[in-house]
Amino acid sequence: MSAGRLAQAGLVALCALPALLSVGRLWLGVADPADYLTRQSGWWALTWLIATLTVSPLAVLLHAPRLIAFRRTLGLTAFAYASAHLSVYVAQVAPTPSVLLDDLVGSPYIVAGFAAWLMLLPLAVTSSKYWMKRLGRSWARLHRLVYPALMLGCLHYLWLTKSDYREPALLTAIATLLLAWRIWRWQRRHRAGSVT
């Protein structure tokens, strides 16, 4: 197995580890399994999404373009955890559709979270090289949806937090820095293009 494939396999194992640990914790017993799964899957979805957007800055700063190869795995992992997060929530409210409707109307954090998941869905579907070739330049434009999805995910976390805001605030600050870096890079390239 090549070094690249070995690194990818290691990353996949790392990405699966939180899910395996959550299953183990459930097996040992928790007071509220649904609440535990909802919180764990949501936190990891946002964390893996931030990790996905950290790849490009690291590749530039470390002069290691090969790191970009890990971005797809991280992005799909974020979507998988976000889907698990949504599935656990839907499983809880599905028996009472009126509750789901009330949540969508009266709970902005539910709307923000669902909107973030909807934005990630086409990115997961079109993440392969096949879709990259088929969509051409439109592929890059489509995948910019990851930026509003990230901010909506942070907003979702901030809104549902009741007391201790330190963790959601930290993740939001990191996400903001990552987006600021991208804006700075875009402005720098734009200015360089204007000069030439």
From TrEMBL:
Places the protein is found: Cell membrane; Membrane
Transmembrane segments: 45-62, 74-94, 106-125, 145-162, 168-184
Residue intervals of the Ferric oxidoreductase domain: 42-154
GO cellular component terms, semicolon-separated: plasma membrane
Family statement drawn from the similarity comment of this UniProt entry: Belongs to the MsrQ family.
Listed GO biological process terms: protein repair
Source organism per UniProt: Crenobacter caeni
Cofactor(s) the record lists: heme b; FMN
Signal peptide: none
Manner of cofactor binding, per the entry note: Binds 1 heme b (iron(II)-protoporphyrin IX) group per subunit. Binds 1 FMN per subunit.
PANTHER family hit by this protein: PROTEIN-METHIONINE-SULFOXIDE REDUCTASE HEME-BINDING SUBUNIT MSRQ (PTHR36964:SF1)
A Pfam family recorded for this sequence: Ferric_reduct
GO molecular function: electron transfer activity; FMN binding; heme binding; metal ion binding; oxidoreductase activity, acting on diphenols and related substances as donors
Protein name: Protein-methionine-sulfoxide reductase heme-binding subunit MsrQ
Highest rank taxon of the organism: Bacteria
The protein's role, per its UniProt record: Part of the MsrPQ system that repairs oxidized periplasmic proteins containing methionine sulfoxide residues (Met-O), using respiratory chain electrons. Thus protects these proteins from oxidative-stress damage caused by reactive species of oxygen and chlorine generated by the host defense mechanisms. MsrPQ is essential for the maintenance of envelope integrity under bleach stress, rescuing a wide series of structurally unrelated periplasmic proteins from methionine oxidation.
Keyword Transmembrane helix: yes
Membrane topology: Multi-pass membrane protein
Record note on quaternary structure: Heterodimer of a catalytic subunit (MsrP) and a heme-binding subunit (MsrQ).
Keywords (A to Z) from UniProt: Cell membrane, Electron transport, Flavoprotein, FMN, Heme, Iron, Membrane, Metal-binding, Transmembrane, Transmembrane helix, Transport
